[in-house]
Amino acid sequence: MSSENPTFQDLFKSENDIPEEYKVPTIHQREYLLNGELIQWNGDVTEIYSPICIPTENGLQRKLLGSIPNITAKEAMDVLEASVKAYDNGLGEWPTMSVEARIKCMQKFVYLMIQQRDLVIKLLMWEIGKTLPDSTKEFDRTVDYINLTIDALKDLDRESSRFKEAEGTIAQIRRAPLGVVLSMGPFNYPLNEIFTTLIPALIMGNTILFKLPKHGVLAHYPLLKAFQEAFPKGTVNTLYGKGSEIITPIMESGKVNVLAFIGSSKVANGLKKLHPKVNRLRAILSLDAKNAAIVTKHANIDVAVSECILGALSFNGQRCTALKLIFVQKEVAEEFTQKLSTAVSAMKAGLPWEKDVKITPLPEVNKPPYLKECIEDALAKGAKVLNENGGYNEASFVFPAVVYPVNDQMKLYHEEQFGPIIPIVPFDDISEPIDYQVNANHGMQVSIFSEDPVETSKLIDAFVNLVSRVNINCQAQRGPDVFPFTGRKDSAEGTLSVFDALRSFSIRSLVAAKITESNKTLLNSIVRDHDSNFLSTDYIF
């Protein structure tokens, strides 16, 4: 799977052959954001390499993109203390700021963020191998998400601006921040997925400890000054370095109030156990997924093939919402696998900025050998690679493999491959994919492909209590961002969406008083003179 192949001989280009408009400067970052200051770092650094390889005299070599600070536990604790001080038990400038003022800060951040659009998009391509259209979409979608969050907060604030009366008591119920939030995100959407937790947590008045992802870290460098200029000092502080060294003492301190984490359930469980008072820790988690597609004999095969390719191979299958296991009924298995294999074989491979490219190099160094191991395990247990060039590997590049027939004795049946392999499981009875989901550790999404209403209804009723989203004749996906995004079992904790995230990162808090003339006079005076940032009947436009 790694021998010479003329189909891919020009996959990696010399630096002279890379268009100037897509080149990026080498960025040796020597700052981290602490208490409103960009602190200079003179210690150890971690070098950042691209999945894009350059031909050299010694063969293909990953291109050096730059380096980042490798701070120690001491500096990490300073970052934590800055966040704790800025929150100040809820008395700090940011948590006590009015909703309208926090919105203005966020709008300033969006304005400054947009100024860095081109550089961030190029860094996404170079750091994680995401195509130009997908990198562009990630940036623009993130901006849209922030603006939608601002609008959602305005709506939430309007709903909360009224006083309510019940049983002789008058009260105003609003949402208040939770405290210090540790935000940790994944490499596959290093901007968008991280911001879907960081932005709502921030705008609700929490202070942020921002641990940058392992891959996609430099893409945030152009945004550090935006964070610095848009928000009060200490509101956002950044962490760079080895998670095992700097996150452990932070969690053990007990000073983190919220863990916002997107990654593996194993790591999330370990982080939660480090906290000395787990009942005080709120966790908002998006974790493992092994989303299944079910193609029945009543499916429109062409639709199923098209959607399964999108679901399984968008960004090389490196998405938590990717379709990672496809069940196909035996009556249509031959037609489905033939059409799927033909379509996959025709997918264009190349570098992220090249026109119509769908398959690109993989950022994780250990991913190609892991995928090879999964394929070899399946082959040893009776499966075949159906498509031309399936599993071909050169340096950081792996061409997608359609593997069939897969069974429950294989790694691909149980493990989340998080890469360009499409395992296909033939089945006789519709109860088989249902049993799979019942016994699976994951429960994020499923995609059902069927044109039969009775069959589809039975599958819907079975799966809505096993996963969090059932997709009909379409791929699994996160969006639209206004829809709830969560999972069952080991796949998630808490719910994210534009609306849900605001609630996840806050708590309902109320001010109540007995309905007496003196209390009415007191409350009217506070509201009229804007003496309180919490009590307010203002309408934010």
What CATH calls the topology of the largest domain is: Aldehyde Dehydrogenase, Chain A, domain 1
What is the number of helices?
A: 17
Distance between the termini: 59 Å
Using the 3D structure, state the CATH architecture of the largest domain.
Answer: 3-Layer(aba) Sandwich
How would you explain this protein's 3D organization?
The chain is an alpha/beta fold. The chain folds into 2 domains: 31-286, Aldehyde Dehydrogenase, Chain A, domain 1; 291-484, Aldehyde Dehydrogenase, Chain A, domain 2. The chain contains 17 helices and 25 strands. A 7-stranded mixed beta sheet has the order 15-18-19-14-13-21-22, with helices on both faces. Strands 10-9-8-11-12-24 form a 6-stranded mixed beta sheet, sandwiched between helices. It has a 3-stranded mixed beta sheet with strand order 1-5-4. β13 (291-295), α10 and β14 (323-329) form a beta-alpha-beta unit. It is globular. The termini are far apart. The model has no long low-confidence stretch (mean pLDDT 96).
